[in-house]
Amino acid sequence: MFTGIITDIGTITKVDQRGDLRLVIRCGYDMAGVDLGASIACSGVCLTVVDKGTDWFAIDASAETISKTASGMWTEGRRLNLERALKIGDELGGHIVTGHVDGIGTVTAVTPEGDSHRVMITIGAGIAPFIAAKGSVTVDGVSLTVNSVADNADGSATFGLNIIPHTWSVTALGDLATGQAVNIEIDVLARYLARMQERFSTLPHG
Questions:
Q1: 103-197: which CATH architecture?
Q2: Which residues are CB-contacts of 7 (< 8 A; sequence separation ≥ 6)?
Q3: pLDDT tens digits, residue range 141-172?
């Protein structure tokens, strides 16, 4: 379990194609305090530490993981938003994040707006109903508030975000560019509410 509050930016320094994809990620964490088998969210993807050094850790990304996440993110030199798993007693500064990607979005615009940046992202019809203005969404592991949502004729939707200077500078969101694919996790509460509504609509009434 995570909160979407990024605590470090990692950089992929090595990519090794084995049965799975072995990635070595340089980071600023004190790795003496990170156990093998621990979970670290890497740009919104919950992954397991399988090896480590003083300033790096390694993870294995399966073919399933690669197929369900943003294209181009598992490449050498790519910067990743990192968050260690939530511990009992930690401050819940963002919202409840599971580290499971629900869909892929495409950045359609990045525009300076005052000191902040306005980012527009288009998502497919499968997850479009779960995005609501003033609701929460996770983009590449970062907990953000949706400012606007517009439905498109093909069932997709485009939503807007305001990225403040602090978030822009302390996360890899500062690397965003038009056309870039990003990992999207919908708010877990929206997922459960949709399931409850679906279930309720099929029950007999009378």
A1: Beta Barrel (2.40)
A2: 29, 82, 83, 84
A3: 999 999 999 999 999 999 999 999 999 999 99
